[in-house]
Structures are given as structure tokens and as C-alpha cells.
Write a structure and sequence with these properties.
The complex is a heterodimer. By secondary structure, chain A is α/β, with parallel strands linked by helices. Chain A is built from 8 helices and 9 strands. In chain B, 71% of the residues lie in helices and 0% in strands. The chains are: A alpha/beta, B mainly alpha.
Chain lengths: 248, 268
Amino acid sequence: MTEPIISVTDLGIHFRRNKARRRSFKDLFAGSARRSRPGEFWAFRNLSFDVAPGEAIGVVGRNGQGKSTLLKLVAGVILPDEGRVRVNAGVAPLIEITGGFVSDLSVRDNVYLTAGLHGMTKAEVAARFDEIIAFAEIEDFVDTPYKHLSSGMKVRIAFSVIAQLDEPVILVDEVLAVGDKAFREKCYGRIDELLSAGRTLFFVSHNERDLRRFCSRGIYLDKGKLVLDGPIADVLDRYNADYNNPTP
Amino acid sequence: MSTTTPPRPRRSRAERYRSALWLLTKRDLRVRYSTSALGYFWSILDPLVMSGIYWFVFVVVLDKGGDIGEKPYIVFLIAALLPWMWFTGTISDSTRAFLREAKLVRSTSIPRTIWVARLVLSKGLEFLASIPVLIIFAVIFGAQANWNLVWTYPLAIILQAILVLGLGLIVAPLVVFFRDLERAVKLILRFLFYASPIVYSTLDIPAAIQPWAALNPLTGIFALYRSGLYPEQLMVFPIVMSAVISVLVLGIGLLVFRRYERAVLKEI
């Protein structure tokens, strides 16, 4: 067995149920922050699994069961309260992809900025720049301020940058629901390419067809626990049995 | 599509930190200067207008030119107002360090201290760019520079960077939970402007209170900034105190930041 590329051990994270509740200044000086206060709940606990390089994993579960949270933990954009996630390779997170773009700057500046924040050097961005723009099909808007792009174009360029990161691990969080059908197909094509090039995929979706298309292994999260970790077909069958919503 | 390219070599943590910090700093400066025609001019106009006002009030109206601060008073003012702009700009911006960049913070995994460090750096670069103004005024009004300048000025910059980073690391995460802090910080900054030796000199303070003034780390830092032009400002006790307090503040800042980091990421 090869060294796992992602290793999740006893992972747990909790959130506050009532976001609007403000903390008082007293909390600032209160003791242990680890103890779960009333109004806090665990999104999940004691999650453990390993991912081998090249695996494609689909995360299955109902809304609010922590699928996106798990993805964010793997991406390192939030931190666990318990346990740990070890990722032994670079990550290309397709999560909130338009987040890094600044509306006042041109598309060109934004591409360099976002790619740079994800760890690319200037030379690497320069080498891929034309490809990124071509994939997003916005050749005529390279020097346009980002805010003047249509929302479709914004998503396209954002996807294009992350998809060109060439990191060994790709995280996809239902971002592909946006954009027109043709572009969505193109994105899927790109993911297929990356998979066949041996990348590791972590995929969150409610779409059973997409899950079956890309993933070989499934992880089923429910009620704060890892219910099943196995071949994607088994996981989907179990999920459908539990919530009895057969898809066409 | 070039799916054949091998995965890129991973860069070290320090290298990634540096490049992300530099990228965000450059972005800050570029956004600020690409959206306003006068750009650089704005960043020096503010301290200049302030200096003009205080010079008018104290020298022209109250005729205190002889017994407040040191002569030439306008140079004395500018020498502390320029670093004050760096201080107040960074601290007040750090109240929005996470809130304004929430989307970007949520989508990248760069070390979170960068969100504060980039403010310290971009405001610091603006401060460095404003130093020629001080030089021009010093030349015009005939302020005498001495050789201490060679070490006191850089030391002042380093101490201030440490202090401002420490305070920013305390303020930035706490504001996410205590929104009132944003207003409190504004008020404290205004108070601190008069509680620090900017329009006056530490030597103008009654001798009995002077040791207490040294508890404000800005006292020693501004004294250092001025000592290259005004040798009497080279006061050992406040300067040593400011160094100790600045390092202490940075230590506290790192602790506070580490404790609140995960909660901040969930909250924004």
C-alpha cells in the first residue's frame, strides 16, 4: 500500500447553532474554549480515513451533514477542533472560487494574484496564462476590470485558474452547478483529464450521475458520523435506502 | 491542455509566506493607486495638512513656537506625524482585516497572519515613500541631522513594525466577535494621538509623569525617529521601554491570534 496522500484522523469540528449571538466581553477572559458551550453542535466527530494517490472520492450526505465542511478542512481553509487532517501534497480547491478576485483590478492582474496565492510563481503563471484565458474563453477581456465581466465569465475565469494549478489533489464543491451547459461539460472534461493524469479527487455533489461518473469510492456522512466508506455504488445504494429518494 | 506537465515542485513554507505576503501587499498598493488619480500625493497630503494645522495653532495662534517641541517645529511635527500615519492606518485597517477579505480568506489556505502582516507592510511602504517629505522640510527649515540617524531611524522602523504587527494580531481576530471593538479602536487611536509625543515632546511633560509616559511604546519610538534631527530626544529609558513593550505586544498578539484563529475562520 502506498503512502496515503490525505490522512484524516479522529477529525471533529463544532459550530455555533446561533450565529447571531454575540459573545460578551466576559467570554474573552473565560477559561477553556475547548468545552462545548450550549448552542454549539458537532458537525461531525471521530472521522478517520485515508486516501491513496489517484483515488476519486465522492462525499455523500444530506444537506447540513458537513460535506462542504469536510472539504474545507482538507483544503485547510478552516481548522479542526479535534483530530487532524494531513495532506501530503498541494491542493487545488474549487471552493468559493471567485473569492480571490478583486473587482477593481484587470482580469490579468487577478489571474496572477489568485494563482500566486495558491502557490504558483510568476513564471509559472506566465507560462500558463494563455491557456487559462483560452479555457475561460475570455480572450477579449484580459485587460477589462474584473467587475465589468458577466457573472458567467467570472466563474469561468475563476475555474480556469484553479483547474490550471496542476496540484496533485483537486477538491470540487458543487461549483460546477453554475455556468452554462457547454462550459459545465468543458469543466467535466477537464476533471476527467486530470483524473486520468493520476490526480486525486475529492468531490461533493448531490448529483448521483456525476458522482458515479467521476468517483470510485464514496464517503457517506450522516448525523455527525461516517456511516459508510466503500465503493461509490454501495455508498449511493445505502444513501438511497436510508433516505429513499431514488433518482431517475 | 497540458496534462502531461509534472506536478510543480513544492516551495518551502517561508517562501510561500513571503510570496503570498508580497502579492497581497502589491495588490493593496495597486488597488489604492490605480483607483485614484493623485495616488501617492494623497498619502502625504494627510500628514502635511495635519502638520500645517498644528503649526498654525501652536506657532501662529498661541505663539508657543519657542516652548513646545523643538525648533524648527514644523519638522519636529512631521518627523512624528509620518510614522503616526503608519501606526493609525494599520491599526484601523486591521479592524477590517478579516471582514473585508472574508471571501478571499475562505478560499485560500495561506497562513492567516498574512492578513495582518500585509497591512503592516503596505502601510509601512507608504511610510517609507513619504520620508522624502521629511527630508525636504528638514533641508528647507535647516534642521541639523546628526550621525545617530544611521542607526536610530532604522531601529525606530523595526520597533514600530513589531509593535504594529503585534497590535494588529490582537485587534484583527477580536473584532470578528466583538464588532463594537471597531469603534473602540477608533476612539483609542484618537486618544493615543494626544497621549503620544507628536505635537509635543516627551521633555515638555512634567518630570514626575515622564516615567509613566514611557509605558506608551510610541513615546520611545517617536523619540528614536526624532533623535537623528534633535539629539536631546535620544532618551534611553523610554526607548528601552518601547523595545521591551513592543516585543511583549507581539508575543501577546501571536498568542491571541493563535487562540482565536479557528473560531475566526468559522465565523466569517
